[in-house]
């Protein structure tokens, strides 16, 4: 059975470009972006790894660690890192798991046999500090991921964990949010004293509060 939202992300120990990773220990009290790659020395993956490396300051601001995975061996990962630096202008600055035995891939359901029975698809997992899976996205091998969307969802999750809110379609950090239906108007007066725009009893828009 594949991982579902709210499940505890499976723990594992695996080698990586940053040494042995004991996953839950490595994650600590951080949020985690875990994402898989079909194969080393492939063009789309090379661009993705460069982009995640460039985004490290953004992940750091959000108390988030990134960790990648490919089923190729560690020595290939290390050689590939040079190509990433050369072509993307950014060196690898997060661990890349060497999942040659497919231990992690199988735990997380990253191999979809009807697509390819040996290579991982482009899986993305957002995992919170309680080790719960909060988002899953699966892309085909031919399509590079949109990491701006991953950051957007991360912002939404962190905001809505802190406040009794949801985020509407195409929301970006700083846009108006939605008061969740479970919050009564009486409670909302305390939570959001500056008021809100009630378009329907179940659709109440409010200015985004400050994030801690």
Automatic annotation (TrEMBL):
<dbReference type="InterPro" id="IPR024706">
    <property type="entry name" value="Peroxiredoxin_AhpC-typ"/>
</dbReference>
<keyword id="KW-0049">Antioxidant</keyword>
<dbReference type="GO" id="GO:0008379">
    <property type="term" value="F:thioredoxin peroxidase activity"/>
</dbReference>
<dbReference type="InterPro" id="IPR045020">
    <property type="entry name" value="PRX_1cys"/>
</dbReference>
<dbReference type="InterPro" id="IPR036249">
    <property type="entry name" value="Thioredoxin-like_sf"/>
</dbReference>
<dbReference type="InterPro" id="IPR019479">
    <property type="entry name" value="Peroxiredoxin_C"/>
</dbReference>
<dbReference type="Pfam" id="PF10417">
    <property type="entry name" value="1-cysPrx_C"/>
</dbReference>
<keyword id="KW-0676">Redox-active center</keyword>
<comment type="similarity">
    <text>Belongs to the peroxiredoxin family. AhpC/Prx1 subfamily.</text>
</comment>
<feature type="active site" description="Cysteine sulfenic acid (-SOH) intermediate; for peroxidase activity">
    <location>
        <position position="45"/>
    </location>
</feature>
<dbReference type="GO" id="GO:0033554">
    <property type="term" value="P:cellular response to stress"/>
</dbReference>
<dbReference type="Pfam" id="PF00578">
    <property type="entry name" value="AhpC-TSA"/>
</dbReference>
<protein>
    <recommendedName>
        <fullName>Thioredoxin peroxidase</fullName>
    </recommendedName>
</protein>
<dbReference type="InterPro" id="IPR000866">
    <property type="entry name" value="AhpC/TSA"/>
</dbReference>
<dbReference type="GO" id="GO:0006979">
    <property type="term" value="P:response to oxidative stress"/>
</dbReference>
<dbReference type="GO" id="GO:0042744">
    <property type="term" value="P:hydrogen peroxide catabolic process"/>
</dbReference>
<comment type="function">
    <text>Thiol-specific peroxidase that catalyzes the reduction of hydrogen peroxide and organic hydroperoxides to water and alcohols, respectively. Plays a role in cell protection against oxidative stress by detoxifying peroxides.</text>
</comment>
<dbReference type="InterPro" id="IPR050217">
    <property type="entry name" value="Peroxiredoxin"/>
</dbReference>
<dbReference type="GO" id="GO:0045454">
    <property type="term" value="P:cell redox homeostasis"/>
</dbReference>
<feature type="domain" description="Thioredoxin">
    <location>
        <begin position="3"/>
        <end position="159"/>
    </location>
</feature>
<comment type="similarity">
    <text>Belongs to the peroxiredoxin family. Prx6 subfamily.</text>
</comment>
<keyword id="KW-0575">Peroxidase</keyword>
<dbReference type="InterPro" id="IPR013766">
    <property type="entry name" value="Thioredoxin_domain"/>
</dbReference>
<dbReference type="GO" id="GO:0005829">
    <property type="term" value="C:cytosol"/>
</dbReference>
<keyword id="KW-0560">Oxidoreductase</keyword>
């Amino acid at each position: 059975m594949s991982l579902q939202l709210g499940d505890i992300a499976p723990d594992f120990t695996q080698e990586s470009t940053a040494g042995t990773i004991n996953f839950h220990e490595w994650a600590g009290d951080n949020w985690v972006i875990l994402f898989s790659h079909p194969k080393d020395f492939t063009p789309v993956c090379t661009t993705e790894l460069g982009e995640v490396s460039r985004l490290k300051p953004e992940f750091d601001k959000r108390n988030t660690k990134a960790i990648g995975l490919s089923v190729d061996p560690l020595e290939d990962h290390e050689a590939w890192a040079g190509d990433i630096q050369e072509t993307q202008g950014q060196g690898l600055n997060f661990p890349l798991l060497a999942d040659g035995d497919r231990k992690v891939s199988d735990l997380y359901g990253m191999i979809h046999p009807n697509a390819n029975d040996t290579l991982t698809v482009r899986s993305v997992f957002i995992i919170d500090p309680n080790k719960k899976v909060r988002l899953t996205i699966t892309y085909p091998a031919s399509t590079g991921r949109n990491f701006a969307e991953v950051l957007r969802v991360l912002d939404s999750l962190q905001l809505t964990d802190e406040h009794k809110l949801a985020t509407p379609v195409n929301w970006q950090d700083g846009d108006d949010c939605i008061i969740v239906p479970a919050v009564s108007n009486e409670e909302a007066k305390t939570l959001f004293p500056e008021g809100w725009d009630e378009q329907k009893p179940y659709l109440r828009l409010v200015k985004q509060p400050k994030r801690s």
